[in-house]
Amino acid sequence: MTERHRFLAASTATVVATRGNVWALWADVNGWTSWNTGIKASRLNGNFKQGSTFDLTLQGGLTAVGTIVEVSQGEGFTDETPTPFGVVRNDHRMAVFGDLVIVTHRVAADIDTAVAAEFGTGIWPGMQTGLYDSLAELVDLAGD
User: Fold this and answer.
1) What highest taxon heads this organism's lineage (predicted)?
2) pLDDT for 26-38, tens place per residue?
3) What are the angstrom distances between the C-alpha of 4 and each of 7, 8, 88, 114, 118?
4) Does pTM top 0.85 for this prediction?
């Protein structure tokens, strides 16, 4: 088994919105480009449920196939995408507090140790920035 190094990042934002507004943006995989500028194109293969796959084309041209590995209807989901350097897992969660929705996005990248240093300096900084930027755009679109 290949040894891996784990990179972790998370971002949380609070917005006046409905759970349905946030969920609609998450579940519309074909529309992820509206809130995640790192994605050039995305296409869901089937329905938004555990086990479904989606095709991604990133702005830099890298293509990948991800899998929705967990769905909690109206609360969150997790997807996992194998890449040439390891596996990237994205976790999306929300909680309602009165009129507010607290939205958290987390990314865990389990990267082959042999390329972890290169990933950490060349790719990870952009992924972290993209995490924060995409969450900001998502809550802006979801807000009432």
Assistant:
1) Bacteria
2) 999 999 999 999 9
3) 10, 13, 12, 8, 13
4) yes
